[in-house]
Design brief:
- There is one protein chain.
- The chain is α/β, with parallel strands linked by helices and about 375 residues long.
- About 30% of the residues lie in helices and about 25% in strands.
- The protein has twelve helices and 15 strands.
- The strands form three sheets. Strands 3, 4, 5, 6, 7, 14 and 15 form a seven-stranded mixed sheet that branches. The protein has a six-stranded parallel sheet with strand order 10-9-8-11-12-13, with helices on both faces.
- Helix 6 (about 190-205) links the parallel strand 8 and strand 9.
- Helix 5 crosses helix 6 and helix 5 (about 165-175) crosses helix 11 (about 315-325).
- It is globular and about 65 Å long.
- The two termini are about 25 Å apart.
- Bound molecules: zinc ion (2 copies).
- One zinc ion binds near residues 40, 42, 60, 61 and 164.
- One zinc ion binds near residues 92, 93, 95, 96 and 99.
């Protein structure tokens, strides 16, 4: 029987290459031949501190070719063998209100935090048949309820590997933050996520984009400028708040997007102070379990709205794919590194800043 190779997370920061049986594809299912699995900050967290002990094929930002498609799969969903596709990591129920509005990320069927039987690529146990529930493998299984997008012509698999941070960029800055024509925006953190937000804000017509980073981010801040940032600030060298006030003539910014990682309470505190006098919006990722002395009074006095960054909707993915196809921005400055299947461990650690230096976005290419 044909076997499929996969990199399996078997414990904290521990990967084993294992093989699984090639799945039987039912009439309403399909098989994806993996081309690129994007690696993001979430992978860094989930790898170092897995949410459970079960073996998991990670990889939730997946691009590949439909290698086999059941007749019903093609009839219902419009995808056929040979199509290059992006597969969202959310696997929907197709029945709830969230699914009907394209907000699959909120569907209970894919919510692993609350539903032990949830299916989500890169999170679901490899013990659950037919096992191939993650992109760090040669093939992935697509049931009828996988959410699939066509990759536009002219977009390579590697470029398409940016679709997830770009879709998050659309969702968080445009849909959640309300960024648009003439907006002023503070983007904290110049990683792949912050840089993608920069592109989306620029495309949407923001008149002022400020990107902050730390002293280790020198090269990334240069990329931010190349992608449309008007100003970059090293928060370790400069008084960021004073600099933002100076740049904005004392007015502050309309929108703050927190794309930092491991920076504690600082980005939120800076964001609250950097927002304009009234009615600014801040989109947060909120990785902190506790926040001592949270400045709630300032928040209410400034009439600030806080929104939660939670992945992307169907619409955001489609817009992100169009953004990639436009070739309007030098996105090759973000797609810095590729790794093979046997190097999953190194690839994730490198994205986290411990391994190969200067990685912005890493593509896992299982056939490399
Ligand atoms: Zn991700
Ligand atoms: Zn649903």
């Amino acid at each position: 029987m044909e076997r499929v190779l996969a990199a399996v997370r078997v414990g904290p920061s521990e990967t084993q290459i294992r093989d699984f049986p090639m799945p039987e594809i039912p009439a309403d299912g399909a098989l994806l031949k993996m081309e690129v699995g994007g690696i993001c900050g979430t992978d860094v967290k989930m790898y170092a501190t897995p949410p459970s002990k079960v073996p998991v094929i990670m990889g939730h930002e997946n691009i590949g070719y439909i290698a086999k498609a059941g007749r019903e799969f093609t009839r219902r969903k419009g995808f056929k063998e040979g199509d290059l596709v992006f597969v969202e990591h959310y696997v929907m129920c197709g029945q709830c209100e969230w699914c009907h509005v394209g907000q699959y990320r909120h569907c209970e069927n894919t919510d692993w935090r609350y539903n032990p039987d949830a299916i989500r690529y890169g999170y679901t146990s490899a013990e659950k048949a037919p096992h191939l529930w993650g992109g760090f493998a040669q093939y992935m299984y697509l049931p009828w309820n996988a959410v699939v997008h066509h990759v536009p012509k002219g977009v390579t698999p590697e470029l398409a590997g940016l679709v997830t941070p770009m879709a998050n960029g659309v969702e968080w800055s445009l849909f959640d933050g309300g960024v648009g024509y003439n907006s002023s925006v503070l983007i904290q953190g110049p990683g792949q996520q912050g840089l993608s937000q920069t592109v989306v804000c620029k495309q949407a017509g923001a008149s002022l984009i400020i990107v902050t980073g730390t002293s280790k981010d020198g090269a990334r801040l240069e990329v931010a400028k190349a992608l449309g940032a008007d100003y970059v600030i090293d928060v370790q060298k400069e008084d960021a708040l004073a600099r933002i006030r100076e740049i904005t003539g004392g007015n502050g910014v309309d929108v703050v997007l927190d794309c930092s990682a491991g920076a504690g309470t600082m980005p939120i505190l800076l964001g609250v102070d950097a927002l304009k006098r009234k009615a600014g919006t801040m989109v947060v990722q909120g990785e902190l379990a506790e926040f001592p002395n949270f400045p709630l009074a300032k928040l209410t006095l400034k009439f600030i709205t806080i929104k939660s960054a939670r992945g992307h909707s169907y619409k955001a993915c489609e817009l992100a794919l169009q953004q990639l196809a436009s070739r309007r921005f030098p996105l090759e400055k973000i797609t810095t590194h590729t790794f093979g299947l046997k190097d999953v461990d190194l690839a994730i650690k490198s994205v986290g800043g411990h391994g190969v230096p200067d990685v912005i976005h890493a593509s896992l290419m299982p056939w490399k």
